[in-house]
Amino acid sequence: MWYGPVWYRRCRSADSTNDQHDRNDLMTFGFEVESCMCRQRGLSIIELMVALVIGVIITFGATTLFLQSKRSYLQDEEVARVQENGRYVLRLLNRELSMSGFYGRVLRGDLVTSAPSGTDCFNYLVDTDLPFEHHNNVSANGVGAPNDPNMPAGCLVAGEHEAGTDMLVVRRSTDRPNYEKGTTLEALDPNAVYLRIVDDNVAITLERGGGATGSTIDIWEYSPNILFIRDHAITSGDGIPALCRRRISTGGNDVSAVECLAEGVENLQVEFGVDLDGDLQVDQYLDAPTSVQMGAAMAAKVYILVRSGNEIPGYTDDKVYTLGQTVVPAHNDGFYRKVMQTTVLLRNSEAFKF
Fold first, then answer.
1. Structure confidence by residue, pLDDT tens digits, 206-257
2. Where are the membrane-spanning stretches (predicted)?
3. pLDDT score for 265
4. E strands of the chain, at which residues?
5. 3-state secondary structure of 218
6. How many Cβ atoms from other residues are within 10 Å of residue 227's Cβ?
7. What does the pLDDT read at residue 48?
8. Tens digits of per-residue pLDDT, 44-77?
9. Which of 123, 137, 177, 309 measures 20 to 30 Å from 200, CA to CA?
10. What pTM was estimated for this model as a whole?
11. Judging by DSSP bridges, how do beta strands 179-180 and 167-170 pair with one another?
12. Residues with Cβ within 8 Å of residue 111, at least 6 apart in sequence
């Protein structure tokens, strides 16, 4: 049966340059039939799907590695910050407690005969009879145990204290004089309070601005501190606990506003080592000593619980922390925490004075 002329066309090779030559070479009949023998080019659907799957796997692995690296970096950063803040706080508390009761060349604070008068908290801080005071497990209003020394309400920050933490009061002068027997070592601030010593303890007073100078006068800046844990660092409700302090103000006979020294300090516990038999050896550490026992204190163990500023993704703190005789239950949150401690010799305690 006749179907008319048929043309068979061979697939042009990749290097063919004469399309008409190929066409004429394959014309035999009248129709032009496309051959299916052409070479396949590109990717098949299966190859494309395999490539996509491999790409997804590689992308997922790279993303997972990036997220793990970022989480590790954030965790290391928070841990380093906790350690740095903790070391700073321990150094500060060590220095404050070891310097407590230091009044220049004066052996006893009760030898100070006069001081400026002002608000109840100012008068409380310039009373040098007690070198240090301890308020155990204060409430949110700053009120401690019944046997703790009475602290004026003007010294407290009602509703802002971290409940269950300790508060310290340290009275001392700076570690070097501003003025020594006719020689000015450091300029006197007319608004600051100074310990003025005449002729090596003949007359000892606290003076605003330091008082008159002379060849027999020593003048040391007076620097008491109230140290406590506040439930926020900057603004109320920010949720960042901090070690803070109050001092006597440099203008007017009052106390200064609260000044926070280190963020992330969640708990402070202090135990005092007391000499119960007068042999100049610590017999027992007490977390809530009486006023009589505080007079026999020779050393202090300081415990702090420091936490990170931010929660760490994927981390849960389910640990129970022990700060001396105080047990802090697990928080079960994402903050990293660390307990740090130090022991301080109370060099100017009444226990060492004969």
1. 999 998 899 999 999 999 999 999 999 999 999 999 999 999 998 789 999 9
2. 45-67
3. 98
4. 7-9, 32-34, 132-135, 167-170, 179-180, 183-184, 193-198, 203-208, 217-221, 225-230, 242-246, 259-263, 265-274, 284-286, 297-307, 321-323, 326-328, 337-345
5. strand
6. 21
7. 81
8. 888 788 888 888 898 888 888 777 777 777 788 9
9. 123
10. 0.79
11. unpaired
12. 201, 204
Element spanning 304, H or E: strand 297-307
- Positive or negative CA dihedral for 32, 37, 39, 41? positive
- Contact by Cβ (8 Å): 340, 79: no
The secondary structure of the chain in percent helix, strand, coil, rounded to multiples of 5, reads 25, 30, 50
The one-letter amino acid code at 183 reads T
The 10s digit of each residue's pLDDT in 72-98 is 777 889 999 999 999 999 999 999 999
Cβ atoms of residues 230 and 257 within 8 Å: no
The b-or-e profile of 264-273 (16+ CB within 10 A means b, else e) is bbbbbbbbbb
**51-87 residues labelled b (16+ CB within 10 A) or e (exposed):** eeeeeeeeeeeeeeeeeeeeeeebbeebeebbeebbe
* Measured distance CA(134)–CA(227) in Å, rounded: 10
H or E segment and range at residue 59: helix 45-99
Instruction: Give which of 227, 208, 123, 254 is closest to 167, Cα–Cα.
Output: 227
Which pLDDT value is given to residue 267? 98
